[in-house]
Amino acid sequence: MSAPDLAHFHCPPGTRLALEITGLPDKFTTACVGHARGRFLVAAVPVLAETVREGFYQMLYPDNAVIVRYLNEGTVVGFTAQVIKCIQIPFPLIFLTFPKKLESHDLRRHARVACCLPGQAVIAGTDIPGMVLDLSHSGCLFSATVPETPPVVSIDDAVELRCGLFGTNGTAKLGGIVKRVALSGRRLELGLKFRQMPPPTQEAISSYLDQALSILG
Q1: Where is the Type III secretion system flagellar brake protein YcgR PilZN domain (predicted)?
Q2: Residue 121 CB: number of other CB atoms within 10 A?
Q3: Which one, of 149, 157, 148, lies nearest residue 181 by Cα?
């Protein structure tokens, strides 16, 4: 487990949360409703079986400790909070203290290395020049400036990526599957998972990552 910077706390409304409430043996799944940075986080009261409902509410007294975990881009983020208050009207909500410290555990199998490699992606039949901003044995982050009408791309779409690192000539191609899409203005970012790659490409990526990791420690 590592401790990410609290300034990077990112838990938007709708994020799936796992709650461990002191005094209760079970974990409860719910959703984040929102937060006020530095003040509080609001979670929806989870759907409860009749047999556990009374005990659940009994443990939501002020200052009782709650461990909160959620998934953010392949990383499990966790923190300890205290109950502020539980309300029923107008909706059943739990108010928790804002985290003072975060812990994280990366679920991805391979370490990612930050980089800045020119590349080109074929997205929905359109060639988009851009940059590979991080790289691992299993995937990468591709970033590009797109036209005012960007190409339509969705999770699990197939994307073809070209990068000089993938082979001895600029036409070497590598297939990927879209696992994350972020569009802000004309800036498009795609989190890609590589499909089966030819041995020369695999060797080139491994060599680059080994060298980068030996320098970065």
Answers
A1: 13-99
A2: 25
A3: 157
Show the domains of the chain with their CATH numbers: 6-106 (2.30.110.10), 113-216 (2.40.10.220)
Long-range contacts of 142-148 (CB under 8 A, 24+ apart): 142/189, 142/190, 142/192, 143/187, 143/188, 143/189, 143/190, 144/187, 144/188, 145/186, 145/187, 145/188, 146/183, 146/186, 146/187, 146/188, 147/186, 148/186
Q: 148-165 as b/e, with b when 16 or more CB fall inside 10 Å?
A: eebbebeeebebebbbeb
Q: What mean pLDDT is predicted for residues 79-95? A: 95
The number of C-alpha atoms within 13 Å of 136 and in the hemisphere containing its C-beta is: 13
* Local structure of residue 102 (DSSP, 8 states): -
pLDDT above 60 (res 217): no
What is the 3-state composition of the chain as percent helix, strand, coil, each rounded to the nearest 5? 15, 50, 35
Which helix (H) or strand (E) covers residue 115, if one does? strand 113-123
Give mean pLDDT, residues 176-189. Answer: 89
Averaged pLDDT for residues 11-36: 92
Using alpha carbons only, give the angle 41, 42, 47 rounded to the nearest 5 degrees: 140
- Nearest Cα to Cα of residue 57 among 99, 28, 36, 35: 28
Distance CA 2, CA 18 (A): 19
> Which residues does residue 121 pair with via DSSP β-bridges, in sequence order?
128, 161
